[in-house]
Prior knowledge:
single chain; alpha+beta; four-stranded antiparallel beta sheet; 9 strands
Amino acid sequence: xxxxxxxxxxxxxxxxxxxxxxxxxxxxxxxxxxxxxxxxxxxxxxxxxxxxxxxxxxxxxxxxxxxxxxxxxxxxxxxxxxxxxxxxxxxxxxxxxxxxxxxxxxxxxxxxxxxxxxxxxxxxxxxxxxxxxxxxxxxxxxxxxxxxxxxxxxxxxxxxxxxxxxxxxxxxxxxxxxxxxxxxxxxxxxx
Length: 191
């Protein structure tokens, strides 16, 4: 099984992403656009594990909590690693500090199970499109770069997240399909 931990998106953010993609897609057909129904914020990529390890992963995740929900604002367009060599177009995510702390707690909880810690700092983002390394169609990419500069303050919406999910990624020729394995609360229950 190929697993990851993620936050879901509110309908408003998903619809705004859908509208923006519909607007930008004709300008850059060489991009691999993400299906809005598949969008999420990855907290931790686990990778391939045997199905018999899922119970241990669930047990490790169950006690992880924060003192409050994660407040998230989705705004602006950015490129990874940068505009000169774009590989990914993503929506910026400004989150309350407890989200990074929460992601680090998830990461630490899985280490005893042999799941390696993340090598990079947690940077929450919402992937909108991916680009091939060869960038043969540079012309339409330039159109997208100009549009992205004009939309760097585009507001996708906000949310207050109280739950997170262990998700199985099922790779198929038409793209990955996601299945929720389990849902957990982010917030500690009040006494």
